[in-house]
Amino acid sequence: MKTLRNIFLIATVALIAASCDKDGDFLTVTGAGNVALSGNGGDIVLNYNQVDDLALTVYWSDNGEISLSNPLVAAPENASVNTVQFSATEDFATVSEQEADAGEFSMQFTHFELNSILNWLDFEPGVKAPLYIRVESSLGENVAPTYSNTMSVNVTPYVIDMTVAYVIDKGTMTETGATLYSVNDDGVYTGFVGCASWFKWYMREGDGTLWGNDESGTVFRISVNTTPGSWNMWYPGQSGCYYTTVNTPGFEWSALLLSEVNVGGDVTGAMSYNRDANCWTYSYTAAAAGTINIQLSGNGELYDINTGDSASTPTTFGFTQNGDAVEFGDAAGDISVEVPVAGDVTITLNLSDPSHYTCTVEAGGSVEPGPGDEFGDYIYLVGIDDGPNPDAGWNFNNYLRRYDTDSNLYGGACYVNSAWGYQICLAENQWSPAYTTDGGTAEGGSLVLMDDVHTGNIPAPAEGLYLFDVSMSAMTYSTTAITSVQYAGINAGADDSWTLTAMTATADAGVYTAEVEITQASAWGFKIYVNENWDLNFGGSDGMLYLYGSNITDDQSLAPGSYTLTVDLCAGTYTLE
């Protein structure tokens, strides 16, 4: 592991000297001498689109062993500390240092890591210049270090744009395509993010700094996240369009849910939101071509550090015109737009570019239904349970419930015992259309519509209880074996101190129970968790369970006492009686 060296090392030789048994008996040390440094040479042109690719490798000769003048005293292994130093000048007047772990004699740097070093050393982006590299070897601050030979490579850094920040999906740690913009280049980023309920995310700045939730647990409080598994930020439990503000100097962020956007002025009506395109649209029949003046305004719900993720502050908003762009603010102003033709036209408020929002009118009426509009509240796993009797025929007894309408995301549990694999059908007792996989495995993959080319079944996992998560928009599926079930949140107070409590499996697949003692109304409700994983959970209401659903609040209306909590993950139901 590479760690940035910012402090001096404590000498190990002083500890060794303590083992001398007579006054005046001193140890002398040999070793930790000069090392020979080498690595891949040539010109290195760094590329932001290859941030995770390897750019540079350096390695040096082994100087890990030292010798002591008293053979009765054991010398520690790998006592010398090796630090790779980078500099823009051959005299190493200013250095960026990366310390190697004990016993390691090589180090690798990705495009992103090397570019960050060059940025710290004030290399000019896009300009080729020499980078000088050497290895410093030391036994401690009281022993003079030695240095390897110096190698140099020509490097060309890429531009680091600190006005743009990237929304990173917590699950995949990849960019979602959504960005935020710092208009004053001051670390305050804003923009509209379309997302599902409870979407988990990080924000990455142009220099690679990753921001997530502060690990104190305070919602909407943020900090720099430097270790794997650091806490992510999350949106509230409603899907939709959020005006997002991330204030890195202030260490907090906020999310304003746009509950509605209305058109007023020469045209009136309620706009519809397309999350994939991050646009609001309204279609109408224009009497004539020409200029019209409209206002765009609405009501929203503001979630911030004061409200948390379960309450909100009602907030009004509007858009005003600024040249060929529109700006977001507290109130609406007149916006002049050109209607191209008489007849069916569509007003589009495009929020996909946080540096340049636009409002335009285009010919054509409402968008035709897309490929996801035919999906209903359930999809069916046909063939998932034919193992006991492969000749009995397939049925529609096993289904997944839709937990995100905007993106057609389906999830739930199912007991798998399949002889031939399975297909996904969209409606009960309707065999077509059906979906299979294109090269996927039992653990997950992509979905395709079955046709003359794609005729096989989706491979089924081994017999057992599994959690299924299917996206009929992204056309993907995944499965996770369920090994245990817990609940958390009952009796939890406002301090949000939840504890996972195990539930007991019954003889019925997917059915778990727990005896609970309600002593107080929970502050936030409770959830059902799978495999002791906070990221795999069910919420719900009115006796229905939804994968990643909002907290269940039934306990808040019950008198203190003993109750039996029963969940049926396969049927997607719960009771608290």
Describe the structure.
This protein has two helices and 48 strands. The protein is mainly β and 577 residues long. Strands 15, 20, 21, 22, 23, 26, 27, 28 and 29 form a nine-stranded antiparallel beta sheet that branches. A hairpin with an 8-residue loop joins strand 7 and strand 8.
Helical residue percent? under 10%
Rounded mean pLDDT is 85
Which regions contain 5 or more consecutive residues with pLDDT less than 50? 1-33, 64-70, 72-76, 368-373
State Rg. Answer: 30 Å
> How many structural domains in the coordinates?
4
What overall geometry do the principal axes of the alpha carbons give?
Answer: globular
> What is the beta-strand fraction?
over 45%
Give a quick account of the main beta sheet: strands, pairing sense, barrel closure.
Answer: 9 strands, antiparallel
**End-to-end Cα distance:** 52 Å
Number of helices: 2
Structural class: mainly beta
Please report the total strand number as a whole number.
48
